[in-house]
TrEMBL record:
Domain D-glutamate N-acetyltransferase-like N-terminal: residue ranges: 47-124
Organism (species): Photobacterium chitinilyticum
Superkingdom of source: Bacteria
D-glutamate N-acetyltransferase-like C-terminal domain ranges (all copies): 131-328
Protein name (Swiss-Prot/TrEMBL): DUF1611 domain-containing protein
Alphabetical list of Gene3D superfamilies matching this protein: NAD(P)-binding Rossmann-like Domain, P-loop containing nucleotide triphosphate hydrolases
InterPro entries (UniProt xref): DgcN-like, DgcN-like_C, DgcN-like_N, P-loop_NTPase
Length: 334
């Protein structure tokens, strides 16, 4: 999946700022790709970038209208269809991370075919994939892993990519989820891949390369989550990571949505991920821990990171509060 850029970020008529997290993520990590925003009402949440009409955005070079919001159920409201239809007629591609597919609307599909545009349902993946082989390939790879779902793996991956490039380590972000795909413009949403092909999808996302230094592969799920361990294991095997970075949220009481399941310990999680990764890369090693410390104050967070560094003998940081330079420093010796 390769989505033409730059983007016009479509916010529809949502009024809950949390519903615009996809658009916010794109703007935060790839501001140069965001021509502007399109809102259907003045009450719609704003990203603080120029409001543009479809015509204005097209004149400024926007190529894809990105549905930058999420809602309960992941459906596309009927009230948005006229705007999406008009966008296609003006020459826009449409990209959406919703569960409901753009191609499920015959009028949109017909218009896209008539005007030679593409509809990108980034949460879905229908193209053929091969099973993973574990065969070594050129290039170095870093994979983010976690103690649970939604602990900051995408944010950490993008923060690492940015800092690596700042330090002169040429790196590329490899997306495995819908928001990551919209940020990068390419990738495979691995939660839409049949289990047998997850490791193969990871191999396809990060094939042989010699034109840059590192691929930073966005992790998914958690190896010790009873619901989503499968996708994590497939990524560990298919990514063949040279380096692993563990992500964890401070204060999480239990596995997300599973109050009967405790969050696994840091040490057990470190060991489990390193062992699993070494099936396809015997040299795989954990190089750092990234924490979401938003539940505690910044001073306490700094003390905690310092304590954990002593305990686990690894760089420990909160990428939002303190950056990831101490972890990236470790890559120079790999």
């Amino acid at each position: 999946m390769h989505i033409p850029q730059p983007y016009l970020l479509f916010l529809g008529d949502v009024t809950d700022p949390l519903s615009a997290k996809t658009a916010k993520g794109i703007l935060q990590w790839r501001p140069q790709l965001c021509t502007g925003q399109l809102r259907l009402s003045k009450e719609t949440v704003s990203l603080g970038i120029p409001d543009l009409s479809l015509t204005e955005a097209k004149e400024l070079g926007a190529k894809t209208l990105v549905v930058g919001t999420a809602n309960a159920g992941g459906f596309i409201p009927q009230t948005w269809l006229a705007t999406l239809q008009k966008a296609i007629e003006l020459g826009f591609n449409i990209a959406s991370g919703m569960h409901q597919r753009l191609i499920s609307f015959p009028a949109l599909t017909k218009a896209a075919n008539a005007h030679g545009n593409q509809l990108y349902d980034v949460r879905h993946y229908d193209l053929p994939l091969k099973v993973g082989t574990g065969k070594p390939r050129k290039g170095k790879r870093l994979l983010t892993v976690g103690t649970d779902c939604s602990v900051g793996k995408m944010y950490t991956s993008l923060a690492l990519e940015k800092e690596m490039n700042r330090q002169g380590i040429h790196s590329q972000f490899c997306a495995t989820g819908q928001t990551g795909i919209l940020v990068s413009g390419t990738g495979i949403s691995v939660d839409a891949v049949v289990a047998d092909f997850i490791s193969g999808a990871a191999e396809a996302i990060s094939p042989d390369f010699t034109d840059h230094d590192w691929d930073v592969i966005e992790g998914q799920g958690s190896l010790l989550n009873p619901s989503f361990a499968g996708v994590s294991l497939g990524l560990l095997h298919g990514s063949q990571p040279d380096a692993l970075v563990l992500c964890h949220e401070i204060g999480r009481a239990h596995i997300r949505h599973l109050p009967h399941m405790e969050v696994p310990s840091i040490r057990v999680t470190l060991e489990a991920n390193q062992i699993a990764a070494r099936l396809t890369n015997p040299k795989a090693t954990v190089i750092g821990i990234c924490l979401n410390t938003s539940s505690i104050g910044e001073k306490d967070a700094l003390v905690l990171c310092q304590q954990w560094e002593q305990q686990y003998r690894l760089p420990v940081t909160d990428p939002v509060r303190f950056g990831v330079s101490t972890i990236v420093d470790k890559l120079h010796s790999i």
